Amino acid sequence: MYKVKVFVTLRESVLDPQGTAVKGSLHSLSFDAVKDVRIGKYMELTVDKVDNIDQMVKEMCEKLLANVVIEDYRYEIEEVVAQ
Predict the structure, then answer these.
(1) How much is the mean pLDDT over the chain?
(2) Going by fewer Cβ within 10 Å, which terminus of the chain is more open, N or C?
């Protein structure tokens, strides 16, 4: 069995209004050291053992989990012992 962690973020060239709003709120709370905020998504998937896990995760990201036109993604795959 695998635990897959998927991280999706907006591409650098895409404006992030949520991140801008959070940065403004942090500054209003006197956290002036914060220079930028980018908002993203994090997902954890538990996947049965398969031979082509890397290709499968890449396909899932490109077909559903990330909008590859405006988002970048990365993932980590960890083999776990079923309990």
Answers:
(1) 96
(2) C
